[in-house]
Amino acid sequence: MKAIRLILVGPPGCGKGTQAKRIEDKFKIIQLSTGDMLRKAVAEGTPAGVKAKAIMEAGQLVPDDLIISMVGDRIAQPDCQAGFILDGFPRTLAQAQALDRSLKARGLRIDAVIEIRVPDEDLVERITGRFTCAQCGQGYHDRFQKPAREGICDKCGGSQFTRRADDNAETVRTRLKAYHEMTESIIPHYERQDILRVVDGRQGIDQVSEAVSAVVAAL
Ligand code: ADP
Ligand code: AMP
Q: What is the reported pTM?
């Protein structure tokens, strides 16, 4: 199968992580979430994590140079040669341009950028209701995606769940502001390359998956 390189873009809480995991399972393309990478770095207390911690808690973007080198190192790993789904990166035009350059230098390019479009007013509830299985990372929602048996993870049977420190109503507003001021400008960048595909993220999770899968299957 040919290598597929995808970007999922959209505001915080639009469903990037949920859909990336489904594409990963269905098409066997690895998910690279920069948010997850940074949270791991914070938990491990690495130099990048120490730098990023307070910035993430405030809902702001970490510096471009830090994230660009983190992603550059990651996509050079052997397990990314068969393709990848970028979830949460790029988030600035400088990051998008750096990614283009680093792929181009290796004769590669992004195949499609899928924008998951959800209005701001829906996002606060999505984010403040989000929780995750501490054991396997499966994502849930208090209202929209409950485990089949309360308190038990559908995927791994785990019973411990976590909520992100930055998933509170106040930080969400800063994160939305960062999205509109810094990230939205990458969309026309990919539109010009004719690789942008827009999906209506207001639909249910399964409907969004169908739309996203149709884009991937057509590549
Ligand atoms: P992102 O990775 O873009 O920040 P997530 O995939 O973590 O967003 O989704 C945020 C929350 O909204 C999660 O709790 C998830 O279960 C829920 N969610 C995701 N997609 C939908 C959808 N289409 N409708 C309703 N809730 C959704
Ligand atoms: P996420 O898990 O995608 O919601 O990201 C959580 C937080 O990590 C963001 O609010 C930022 O502080 C930081 N972050 C993740 N990806 C990036 C990126 N590409 N550029 C800058 N900051 C990022």
A: 0.96
CB 13 within 8 A of CB 127: yes
Q: Which H/E stretch holds residue 41?
A: helix 34-44
Q: Assess whether pLDDT exceeds 90 at residue 2.
A: no
155 lines ligand 1 (CB under 6 A): no
Cβ of 13 below 6 Å from ligand 1: yes
For the sheet containing 112-117, what is the strand order? 30-33, 83-87, 4-9, 112-117, 196-200
Question: Which helix (H) or strand (E) segment is 134 a member of?
Answer: none
Mean pLDDT within 189-200 = 98
Confidence check: pLDDT of 109 > 90: yes
The C-alpha torsion from 174 through 14 and 8 to 58, rounded to 10°, is 20
The response to whether residue 11 sits with its C-beta less than 6 Å from ligand 2 reads no
200 CB-contact burial (10 Å; exposed 0-12 / middle 13-18 / buried 19+): exposed
Query: Looking at the annotation, which residues are catalytic?
Result: 16, 91, 130, 164, 175
User: CA-CA-CA-CA torsion for 130, 124, 182, 164, nearest 10 degrees?
Assistant: -30
Residue 49 in contact with residue 42, Cβ under 8 Å? yes
